[in-house]
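User: Sequence recovery, please. Input:
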């Protein structure tokens, strides 16, 4: 068993490292450096922003080449475009300013040996003053209270299968299935818990967007923390990879838009309730210490972390990376909205009153207004998937103990140091 557990842990680590490597941007032969004058990349509204730009090949600056740049609010059309000759090793681009809180992005393009390269940097203008566009429905709280009450009537019907090949000397790993939303409808996840008897804190890990298998957080369980990592699509999370690819491009393609015109049937209703059902399961475990429970995730998982905390007071701590589904209506007010950008001007098919109304019941901003738990939040200004304007819209309305950690140049990915910081924060809170 010890050898099998070690091999399982090794495979899990390799898979996690593989996913991390491919979450990072790939390196290219020519690198465009763009650095705002302010080291923290933050300006006050009305202050003039400037970017220092250099183009490097093999680490050496290129000169006498043409560069093209665009200045634009994130996800919006350019407000300034120009082509200039880079005569020195570095040049300064005057980006201008903003007359209201938000973000301004500088894109730079250059062609070298027939190939075009690009990079960008994003500066903030008084981000702590960004206010959401999302409107709070008058019956928001009662809508979700009624939904949870109805969900509680569905028996959890726990089914647990030990995965011996993933267990270690100290940790048992299970594939778990729970009934949720309707009889016969289920959510699945991977439970990792210490073998030794005792009362342990717990972490619920909620997933980013997509369709994939899950491997659990053996590392947390080795630290003496119960971990439950869930999927959201009602399918087992231990199947062959090709099955998830079939679902991703087939039945679950664009799931975030499914039934958007009906708040009672929208795809995410079952998902949000599934997160609460996962809390039901964790708190039912005899090994759980009865109090210390955190929720964490990134992107869609960052959104689900805030949502679960907003819905369920049994959660005591939350840690969210770049939360999606935030301030979805931003585009309707002429600025960037959150992933999945269902109201972007390029998709006018969603511009109906029914869909706009439904989105209000599922917008992270409206759950953030209800958060009372101590929270850790982190993202970067260069995120093009979850625009920082949308994330600050949610963060700024959280009226609870909170801390934010900005890694300015990150996009929709994290540094190893950033991940380690979050993990250590969770361990400190829980233990």
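Assistant: Recovered sequence (431 residues):
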């Amino acid at each position: 068993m010890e050898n099998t557990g070690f091999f399982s842990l090794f495979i899990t680590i390799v898979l996690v490292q593989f996913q991390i490597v491919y979450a990072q941007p790939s390196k290219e032969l020519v690198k465009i450096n763009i650095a705002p004058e302010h080291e923290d990349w933050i300006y006050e509204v009305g202050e003039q922003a400037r970017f220092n730009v250099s183009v490097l090949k093999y680490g050496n600056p290129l000169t006498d080449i043409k560069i093209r740049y665009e200045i634009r609010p994130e996800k919006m059309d350019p407000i300034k475009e120009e082509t200039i000759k880079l005569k020195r090793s570095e040049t300064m681009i005057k980006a201008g300013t903003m007359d209201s809180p938000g973000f301004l992005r500088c894109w730079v393009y250059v062609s070298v040996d027939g190939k075009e390269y690009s990079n960008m940097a994003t500066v903030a203008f008084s981000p702590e003053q960004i206010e959401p566009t999302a409107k709070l429905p008058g019956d928001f709280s009662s809508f979700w209270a009624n939904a949870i009450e109805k969900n509680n009537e569905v028996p959890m019907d726990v089914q647990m299968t030990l995965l011996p090949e993933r267990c270690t000397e100290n940790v048992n790993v299970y594939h778990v299935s729970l009934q949720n939303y309707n009889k016969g409808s289920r959510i699945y996840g991977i439970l990792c818990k210490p073998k030794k008897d005792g009362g342990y804190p717990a972490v619920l890990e909620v997933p980013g967007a997509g369709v994939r298998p899950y491997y659990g957080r053996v590392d947390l369980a080795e630290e003496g923390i119960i971990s439950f990592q869930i999927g959201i699509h009602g399918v087992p999370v231990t199947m062959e990879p090709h099955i998830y690819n079939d679902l991703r491009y087939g039945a679950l393609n664009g799931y975030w838009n499914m039934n958007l015109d009906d708040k009672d049937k929208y795809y995410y209703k079952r998902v949000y309730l599934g997160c609460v059902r996962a809390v039901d399961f964790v708190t039912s475990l005899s090994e759980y210490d009865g109090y210390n429970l955190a929720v964490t995730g990134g992107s869609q998982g960052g959104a689900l972390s805030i949502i679960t905390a907003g819905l369920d007071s049994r959660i005591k701590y939350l840690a969210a990376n770049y939360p999606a589904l935030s301030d979805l209506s931003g585009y309707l007010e002429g600025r960037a909205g959150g992933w999945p950008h269902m109201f972007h001007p390029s998709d006018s098919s969603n511009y109906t009153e029914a869909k706009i109304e439904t989105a209000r019941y599922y917008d992270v901003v409206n759950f953030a207004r209800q958060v009372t738990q101590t929270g850790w939040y982190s993202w970067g200004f260069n995120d093009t998937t979850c625009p920082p304007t949308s994330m600050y819209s949610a963060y700024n309305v959280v009226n609870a103990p909170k801390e934010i950690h900005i890694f300015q140049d990150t996009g929709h990915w994290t540094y190893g140091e950033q991940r380690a910081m979050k993990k250590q924060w969770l361990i400190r809170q829980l233990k």
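The chain is about 25% helix and 30% strand.
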